[in-house]
Amino acid sequence: MNLLIERTIEENAFDEVIELAVKAALAEEDMDENCEISVTLCTNSEIAELNEEYMYRTGPTDVLSFPQLAFDEDKCIYEESLTYNGDNLLLGDIVISLERAKEQAEEFGHSERREVGFLTVHSMLHLLGYDHMEDSDREEMQAKEKKILAAMNLPRE
């Protein structure tokens, strides 16, 4: 697995939980680890710019996902969306606002590590074809998140 973690702010405390979350999500989906994922850790103002540019929403958000793969309704990958960097399948990009993650950790009463782990798992599931637009999809995605976080020993506190 090629995990690229980039930062616009100096914060190295979450690299281990990000890697753990990526591996746990891949394992849950029986995905080969021959893949590449980019994770960017940034500020609220930086993610707000991306949120407006790509999602057409104003203000900061906690996490953005930019999947490389396209899936059909049965979560089968469209072959034409497969792109490789050497032997690694490109899954996509994740952008996490560490400022927002820290705010949410305090708001929800759990650790910053747990919140960053959750946001990474949530975003990985988006890269792997899940969404939460419909109630049934949201329930399926939340069940996956809960299972993966429990396997990581990061249940909601």
Summarize the structure.
The protein is 45% helix and 20% strand. It has 5 helices and 5 strands, in the order βαβαβββααα.
Please give a structural write-up.
This protein is 45% helix and 20% strand. By secondary structure, it is of the alpha/beta class. The protein has one domain (2-151): Collagenase (Catalytic Domain) (3-Layer(aba) Sandwich), CATH 3.40.390. Strands 1, 2, 3, 4 and 5 form a five-stranded mixed β-sheet that branches. Helix 1 (15-28) links the parallel strand 1 (2-7) and strand 2 (35-42). Helix 1 (15-28) runs parallel beside helix 4 (112-127) and helix 1 (15-28) crosses helix 5 (135-151). The longest helix is centred in the last third of the chain and has 17 residues, at 135-151. The model has no long low-confidence stretch (mean pLDDT 95).
Keywords:
alpha/beta; Collagenase (Catalytic Domain); 5 helices
CATH 4th-level superfamily? Metalloproteases ("zincins"), catalytic domain
CATH architecture: 3-Layer(aba) Sandwich
The coarse silhouette is globular
Number of helices: 5
* CATH fold field value: Collagenase (Catalytic Domain)
N-to-C series of helices and strands: EHEHEEEHHH
Task: For the record, give the distance between the C-alpha atoms at the N and C termini, rounded to a whole number.
Answer: 30 Å
Number of domains: 1
In helices, the fraction of residues equals 40-55%
Note the main sheet. 5 strands, mixed
Determine the mean pLDDT: 95
Oligomer: single chain
Class computed from helices, strands and strand pairing: alpha/beta
The first-level CATH class is given as Alpha Beta
Low-confidence stretches: none
The strand count comes to: 5
Beta content = 15-25%
Gyration radius, in Å: 15 Å
